[in-house]
Amino acid sequence: MIREFREFIARGNVIDLAVGIIIGAAFTAIVNSVVADLINPILGLLTGGVDFTNKYVVLSGTPPEGASLAAARDSGAAVFAYGSFAMAVLNFLIIAWAVFLLVKAVNRLQRMAVKPAEEVVVAAPTQEELLAQIRDLLADRTVWADRPEPRI
């Protein structure tokens, strides 16, 4: 059983999966930083800092007047937190867009780094051209001058 476990761990698929998870975690930090540090401040400027997180409708119970979503939940009221959901959807779309842009940039860099060598296309001679060359060689007596005459 230990031998089988060693073979399982030593397989390339398990190691590739582990590397993928580690790189995915690092990539998550990059994406979160792009969204939080670059995109959200720009959106905040464009929207005037509007935050929908605390928008909700009370379904039952009585939270304190003007309470935040957290305070309304803490008071025991049943709330329909549409603002929190809207912000989660918006954050998802922003993150998906950032991932798209990052992947697109990485793919462009990879294409630039691995540029295929330009292939020189040499047109093969046609059948007529080959026959003309053979005819010219046969007609050129200097090619045959060094060879002895065949005896019949």
UniProtKB/TrEMBL annotation:
Name used for this protein in its record: Large-conductance mechanosensitive channel
NCBIfam families for this protein: mscL, PRK00567.1-4, PRK13952.1
Quaternary structure and partners: Homopentamer.
Entry GO terms, CC: plasma membrane
Membrane topology: Multi-pass membrane protein
Species: Paracoccus sediminis
Transmembrane segments: 12-35, 79-103
Biological role stated in the UniProt entry: Channel that opens in response to stretch forces in the membrane lipid bilayer. May participate in the regulation of osmotic pressure changes within the cell.
Primary residence: membrane
Subcellular location: Cell inner membrane; Cell membrane
Single GO MF descriptor: mechanosensitive monoatomic ion channel activity
Keywords attached to this entry: Cell inner membrane, Cell membrane, Ion channel, Ion transport, Membrane, Transmembrane, Transmembrane helix, Transport
Classification via Pfam families: MscL
Family: Belongs to the MscL family.
